[in-house]
Predict the structure.
Amino acid sequence: MKKKIMQSAQQLFMTGISLITSNGPNGQNVMAAEWTMQISYEPMLIAVFIHEGSSTLKNIRKTKQFGVNVASEKQSTLVSIAGGYSRKEIDKLNIHNSFQILGLKKTGVPLIADCLINAKCKLFTIKKIGDHTMVVGRVVSIRYDETKNPLAYHRNRYFRIGSIIEPIRDKVIVNKKTFNLFHRQSENKFIIKCAGVIVRSKNKMLVTSNPGQNLVSIIPFIQPKKNQDYKRSLENYLQSMKFSITLKEEPRLKRLIMKNGDRVQRINFILFEGKIKNRSKFYFWKLVKTDPVLKSLIK
Ligand SMILES: Cc1cc2nc3c(=O)[nH]c(=O)nc-3n(C[C@H](O)[C@H](O)[C@H](O)COP(=O)(O)O)c2cc1C
């Protein structure tokens, strides 16, 4: 029973497909490998997990090089050939009207035409892991075609990827000053990640404005540094501003898309509810309904 569940679950992973090319004692070859992925930027490394019986693995062990050709959505038939037969059975690259090799070279590692990415790799490390062998290659040359779309693989079937799914964000239209406050802080990042505190008093919210904020009144917030604890960073900021506010556990995540004219800025707010302990001259209370940002933060 347990094994059956595992087998079914295994089919639900979603991958792309690469055509792994190699050359060896029996000549050039291609196999299909869904278990292929980039695993390092610098050096650029690609790992492929290959079963022991394949001709490809024999070739790679011998020549210490291979090609990774990321299949495009029009190449499902080629993938099916590369994955359906072994070089021991047939010379797949020689099947009429199938694979087109880039360039004319009949020696070395071939690369397949019409793929999304073609990378030539030198063997970096090789290690048996479970019932497959992890072959890691260092990319020595690479080319790509951005006009091609990748082939997706799921439940033993081939798919093309669909339309972009934008994670849900609340739209908030703001004036130029408010927009600039956030946009300047973003340093052209696609999303800025902020931590802020919401302190309510009836239909008002605690806001502050300081010279760094272009005199826009907004909840106390910061852009925490990467890998720094958000709550602690916010607490430190509040302390430095002489705000005596205690933060509750369990923050909310508010995802906004801020608009001003044609300009947009995506903002992820980690929002802590806060309780103010004593008064300070650095903040004031603002009616929530008069401020689009405040309204969107509590929606
Ligand atoms: C869609 C698809 C994905 C595959 N993914 C892998 C894989 O990630 N690793 C692997 O070892 N075999 C994988 N295979 C099986 C090999 O491609 C197959 O065993 C092939 O015949 C090996 O060829 P060779 O003996 O000529 O090297 C896949 C097959 C298909 C159809």
Q: What stands out?
A: The pocket of flavin mononucleotide is lined by residues 17, 29, 31-35, 49-51, 54-56, 79, 82-87, 132, 153 (CB under 6 Å). The radius of gyration is 28 Å. The first helix runs from residue 2 to 10.
